[in-house]
Amino acid sequence: MIITEREEWRNLAAHYEKIKHAHLRDLFSEDKNRTESLSLFDEGILFDYSKNRITGETMKLLLRAAEASGLAEKIEDMFSGKPINQTENRAVLHTALRNLSNEPVFVDGRDVMPDVRAVLAKMKDFSERVRSGQWRGFSGKPIKNIVNIGIGGSDLGPAMAAEALSFYADRKLNFFFVSNIDDAHIAETIRMCAPDETLFIIASKTFTTQETMTNAESAKSWILEAAGGNRCATASHFVALSTNTEAVSAFGIDTANMFEFWDWVGGRYSLTSAIGLPVMTAIGYDNFMALLSGFHSMDNHFRRTSFDKNIPLLMGLLGVWYNNFFGCETHAVLPYSQYLRRFTAYLQQADMESNGKSADRNGQPIAYQTGSVVWGEAGTNGQHSFYQLIHQGTKLIPADFIGFVNSLNAIGDHQHKLMANFFAQTQALAFGRTGQEVTALGTAPALVPHKVFAGNHPTNTILMDKLTPENLGRLIAMYEHKIFTQGVIWNVNSFDQWGVELGKELAKKILSDFTGAGADSAHDASTKKLVNFYRDNRQK
Ligand code: F6P
What separation in angstroms does the CA of 83 have from each of 233, 244, 303? Predict the structure, then answer.
């Protein structure tokens, strides 16, 4: 049955009508126990969701809707390797990549854990050889620069995690992440590197992605030119992370230097696969294993904790509440940590590529809202940029505030000031400042309306001790499972991404127009004119 026709959904809609104007100021003053009942501490996370436009009744109804969607069974289907990505007939088993228990995980009757462990051991060996200076470039010098070439899931996860955990990184090594096909990206990166001290990690699940293969070919030419055409240089300067052995060999990379993963690992869920190799090389094997253990621990929490105490699940339901009942189009993710500067960009792919769907699992068109627009920026930078609109604009934007009690650097009173801002923002967003309060401050009457804060802007607060590898793992897995929860409720396949295909196909056609007689007459008039303008204005 379509979700919006279910009784649980109708009950939520009726409840929404009753409480849609309730103000957080009143909800807090009416229920002194609110913060206790609408917050929990687990997995090292204080998750405070009391500053949401909900009551205990809202949560009951949302939890019922979750039960009615078959979520419990679907969670088990994912963890046990059922082919839940049905449009590609694949299991979805990123959780096996960080399964640190002794339990086997079966795909088509075969335990995948021995392969997972073998790749981890191979990654350990490689990362230790690079970190110790044993891995040498064509001139005999140790490696100093590591350039990951990949895009989407083969870039955003490792780039985000390498930056997030840079406090733990080996400072002798420099890490770069090249993704864009714009030649500025590879050009500016190699300008900073000496070829004989540079190792390229070519990260691509398919090993066919245009951006990655183009950048990889340019990197290869650069190395071969510097090595005087010695083709053996490829072996010491290139390794591959992929599922496609044939294409890796065809590129010229020895498969001994290929780190394998499998079709049951989705690109945007692949950070804990071989795709994490640059991260392991940066922070070392033990720290990488701590990262995996954080993921594993949150996986267990999601799989085994009752719905009403399950952090990712509750986050998913709150997102549904705003998306489908309040009509919110966007969701802000605001980490108060400079180390998490790339976290929201990473989440954009994880969330929007997963749940940006308008056909349901049965191929039927969807008549309700699915995935939110995810956006944000590290605090406090965002406060001096777009927070104005969240506080006083006309849109309702639910937001997650992510913060840490302890800083890794402990310089002066930076941390106190950072966190004072963190707490102040959710307070201001929830409770605002009334006209009366503004007037009482002696404000000139003409200015009062400009200085009023309506408040009633919902936030989740996610507070952890400090940014350790383990806590980062928990945080990422928490969002992965939030996305899963929402995909189940919306009845979409969160694990395919057909929406990226058409653009790829058309770009191939247009590329051939540049070298042929002119723009293909089959193009629409606008595209034809643009393509011809481009051709005509290229410098000869
Ligand atoms: O953008 C589409 C996509 O297929 C993503 O899902 C994926 O993460 C990215 O391209 C890169 O793919 P690959 O790892 O195969 O190069």
Answer: 41, 20, 18
